[in-house]
């Protein structure tokens, strides 16, 4: 199962890297700052120095490296979990979270912040500005929650006594 999760992690990471390269180098969004795509979708350049949804902003070099170390430790934990997983949904979910996490870690190391650019909005309502890595992480977490809360878990078989009855 881990191979599927690993492939998904690589695909999510590459999709994130390619879209960020395109936005920064082809669209030059860091200079342009804003491009309207549809009435509810814009590309709007934001450098996120925090974690999800701009929480825990790390403005200095120390904070930046603390976030890099902490997110790398979480990613390492998830990678170990992925190699032990025996469930396809968990493998997919962990692969998505890992691919997204590595995409955002790459940004933090390379740029000092995460490049966010997808802005969904409707009228005065505005959703957070995010990127492909954030989307992969969100979908992966939703799958993890669905697996834990909604999908039936197989119970381990209990050993039988010599007379064929289950041991208590």
Envelope shape: elongated
The portion of residues forming beta strands comes to: 15-25%
Helix content: 55-70%
Terminal-residue CA separation: 32 Å
Output the radius of gyration: 20 Å
| Overall tally of structural domains | 1
Q: Spatial order of the strands in the main sheet? A: 1-2-3-4
Instruction: Report the total helices.
Output: 5
Uncertain residue ranges: none
Structural class: alpha+beta
SSE run:
HHEEHHEEH
The tally of beta strands, per DSSP, is: 4
Oligomer: single chain
Largest sheet: 4 strands, antiparallel
Overall pLDDT score: 89
Task: Give the helix/strand layout.
Blueprint (H helix, E strand, L loop, with lengths): L1 H25 L2 H4 L1 E5 L2 E8 L12 H24 L3 H24 L2 E9 L2 E6 L1 H18 L19
Antiparallel strand pairs: 1-2, 2-3, 3-4
List keywords for this structure.
168 residues; alpha+beta; four-stranded antiparallel beta sheet; 4 strands; 17% strand
Explain what the structure shows.
This protein is α+β, with helices and mostly antiparallel strands and 168 residues long. The protein has one domain (2-149). Helix content is 57%, strand content 17%. The chain contains five helices and four strands. The chain has helices spanning 2-26, 29-32, 61-84, 88-111, 132-149, and strands at residues 34-38, 41-48, 114-122, 125-130. It has a four-stranded antiparallel β-sheet with strand order 1-2-3-4. Strand 1 (34-38) and strand 2 form a beta hairpin. The relative contact order is 0.18.
